[in-house]
Task: inverse folding
């Protein structure tokens, strides 16, 4: 079984400042990793994914994440946030042998202040 | 664009009622999922289906059942709603060829009083 921990439940940040959202996972097998975003009153949409290859993954809206196997982490970063980045962000993991099943973290709510 | 729609955005039901939540996807996806979303707990998988009439339990199936009679439609059923089932319910779908990319509907916020 796998599990995901998002270390911050809320992150306030000023507009144009950088932001990092932390995600750690545990799994006894190789995994795929994902970040999803949920804007207010909407469903989730995929920001980026790590399946294999380069450990630095670039996603939509200027976000990127780095897979660190030794630290079992997949932190999400953006160098300069906008008001429109206010949303809840979810880290998710899928064991390669587990088919389509995703395990989600508890979410991090990002509030971008002007 | 993949579109996943859910029958209601908001629903209020009484304890003991039978509740149906409907989900429809228009991309001919084989896999469909039902999650519930609660603050601080993220999303937890209730049931999923990888083909018509096929279903598998997720992590929290107790108190729920599902039905998939057609490929595009996946229903979540609360046989006898209870107050601890008050939550946001999210439906998702994915294809067999792009296994890990799930597309989500907007959610149904269910309140059981």
Result:
């Amino acid at each position: 079984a796998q599990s995901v921990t998002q270390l911050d439940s809320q992150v306030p940040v000023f507009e144009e400042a950088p932001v990092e959202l932390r995600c750690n996972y545990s799994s006894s097998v190789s995994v795929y990793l994902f970040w999803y975003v949920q804007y207010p009153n909407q469903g989730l949409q995929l920001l980026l994914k790590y399946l294999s290859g380069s450990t630095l993954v670039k996603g939509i809206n200027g976000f990127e994440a780095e897979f660190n196997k030794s630290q079992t982490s997949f932190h999400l970063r953006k160098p300069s946030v906008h008001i429109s980045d206010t949303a809840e962000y979810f880290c998710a993991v899928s064991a390669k042998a587990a088919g389509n099943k995703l395990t989600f973290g508890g979410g991090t709510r990002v509030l971008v202040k002007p | 664009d993949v579109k996943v729609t859910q029958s209601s955005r908001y629903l209020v039901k009484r304890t003991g009622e039978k509740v149906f939540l409907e989900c429809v996807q228009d991309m001919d996806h084989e896999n469909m999922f039902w999650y519930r979303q609660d603050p601080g707990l993220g999303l937890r998988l209730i049931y999923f289906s990888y083909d018509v009439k096929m279903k598998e339990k997720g992590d929290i199936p107790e108190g729920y059942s599902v039905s998939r009679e057609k490929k595009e439609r996946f229903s979540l059923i609360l046989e006898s709603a209870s107050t601890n089932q008050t939550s946001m319910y999210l439906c998702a779908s994915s294809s067999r060829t792009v296994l890990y990319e799930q597309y989500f509907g907007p959610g149904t916020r269910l309140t059981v009083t």
Q: What stands out?
A: Residues 35 and 59 of chain B are 10 Å apart (CA to CA). Chain B has a mean pLDDT of 93. Chain B touches chain A through 25 residues (CB under 8 Å). The longest strand of chain B covers residues 31-38.
